[in-house]
Amino acid sequence: MTAFKALGLEEHLLKAIADMGFETPSEVQEKAIPILLDRETDMVSLAQTGTGKTAAFGFPMLQKIDVNSRTTQGLILSPTRELCLQITNEMVAYGKYMPGLNVTAIYGGASITDQARQIKKGSQIIVATPGRMKDMIGRGLVDISKIEYCVLDEADEMLNMGFYEDITEILSHSPKDKSTWLFSATMPKEVSTIAKKFMHTPVEITVGTKNVGSDQVTHEYYLVNARDRYNALKRLADANPEIFSVIFCRTKRDTQKVAEQLIEDGYNAAAIHGDLSQSQRDTVMKSFRNRQIQMLVATDVAARGIDVDDITHVINYQLPDEIETYTHRSGRTGRAGKTGISMVIVSKSEVRKIHTIEKMIQKKFIAKEIPSGMEICEVQMFHLANSIKDTKINPEINAYLPNINEVLADFSKEELIQKVFSVEFTRFLNYYKNSKDLNISNDRNFSDEDAKDSTRYFVNIGNKDDFDWMSLKDFLRDLLQLGKDDIYKVDVKDSFSFFNTDTKHQEMVMGIFKDFKLDGRQINVEISKDTGRGGRSSGGGRDRGKRRGDRSGSDRGNRGDRSGGFKKRSGGRGDKPAFKGKSRRSPDRPDTKGTGGRRRRKS
Ligand code: ADP
Ligand code: MG
């Protein structure tokens, strides 16, 4: 808190900041706030998404305006309705100890009369999308002729969305001597043009290297035939039962198509794109926020409004046309101190784009292989086992237990386990039994010959124990006294993980783990049936692994209410796998097996 004070913020803001739970300023805040407080200047600030830009302009604006006046003094332009509302909420929260403060959100798709009425009451700050703002100025419903501060937030995106003319028009109604603060994640030509046009010798601030993505994000690519794209996507989802992801497509049409197919195949998916009505979009976002949707298929534009902090995976179903856009996409994960994975599904003709992106983000991609069917089965099985273990017992079951016990009285625990898993898996195993390898040859892979000499292990520690793949690899190397490349294919799931060593180390590894405890807990290692074909992917450009700092972030949702495992999809085409990623469905949709044709809500 003293760190915020040192930036020159007043007591009432410090109090609100404490209420928000912010402890130290982020880099962009540290750099921007003192300057903006200290002088009337224009500013161009480049920083990735999730770096706290809202507060970087929000705190100074709040401190500088006069709440006793009802004149509009600050205007914040942002590209989407979602962001507009998000910024408004943040401003209100920061200004909670400023009696008389009025922050009004102006955006399309809602009643213009209501918004005009709010403005009339006297808003010191207006947060607006350009389209509606221009409209309201044109109708004389809002007056910005006296503003002192104007923020262009996500300037690159506003320009991408074609708001250049609207912005020009809006700013022509504002005073020449105001201060303009531009915030952007990237600096394409268009942004420099706008900076030149509307600003006078702006102070420039860059956080991190330009265009470089968050350090918290690992980048992976998967090389497949273009026709296998969708199947590859499904496998990636299946191999990550806890996935909570945004999937990017290039067009609205593809977005809709992929989402529909996923829903058809029994996943908790939905589409979000510009052809949906505002209320449809709101519904989708609400379901995504409370995890009824695990896979949100989005266009780049629609995804800009997604302010969800614990997205585990960003999947680039198709690469964006503009390479710059990749940074925005991957910036949806790895936010607020959490780690994330950005996956790209590419066909051969697109591989060179990966290299271009690597140059831009200054990080290496890891070439990974689409998991095999057996690998997925194994992951799902362990996931189910763990979910059963963690399931809170529902006392309402007790009433039925005597009868259930009677039916099952003749079976041993082993038999029961076999049966439970057979119920869940037979269809699924059948589906994947003869599934083909979706990977196309890639120099970085090792051959099947190599795989024979490799042993894959399962270990019952994972994300939940604060491991990511780097820290687990380091941990194993130290423990097993093996060299840097002797442990590979480290794959960390929520509560368990996999790794490979050459088969010659197998005996030694099993010996060490025979009776091994970590923090008093028994650690089990088993030999996995799958050989774990696939790249000996070693860590791209990331720093050597530290354990995760933010524990609360990785443990998504409340484990207690998870009903365990994945569930069968009923009805529909018989050739699809009989499961979906995770069985978190809305409470009004009980899981009724075999009722046929049940569909999850479409967006
Ligand atoms: P950006 O606009 O750069 O994408 P936001 O302003 O939306 O980032 O901030 C991202 C998240 O980080 C928000 O949830 C915000 O409340 C939080 N945040 C901002 N500043 C801090 C801070 N100093 N400490 C902790 N959390 C912060
Ligand atoms: Mg922002």
Describe the structure.
By secondary structure, the protein is an alpha/beta fold. The chain has 4 domains: 205 residues, P-loop containing nucleotide triphosphate hydrolases (Rossmann fold), CATH 3.40.50.300; 157 residues, P-loop containing nucleotide triphosphate hydrolases (Rossmann fold), CATH 3.40.50.300; 57 residues, no CATH class; 96 residues, Alpha-Beta Plaits, CATH 3.30.70.330. The protein is 37% helix and 15% strand. The protein is built from 23 helices and 20 strands. A 7-stranded parallel sheet has the order 3-4-2-5-6-1-7, sandwiched between helices. Strand 16 and strand 17 form a beta hairpin. It binds adenosine-5'-diphosphate (ADP) and magnesium ion. Keywords: ATP-binding, Helicase, Hydrolase, Nucleotide-binding. One of its GO terms (cellular component) is cytosol. It is an enzyme of class 3 (hydrolase).
At a glance:
The chain is of the alpha/beta class and 603 residues long. Helix content is 37%, strand content 15%. Strand 3, helix 6 and strand 4 form a beta-alpha-beta unit.
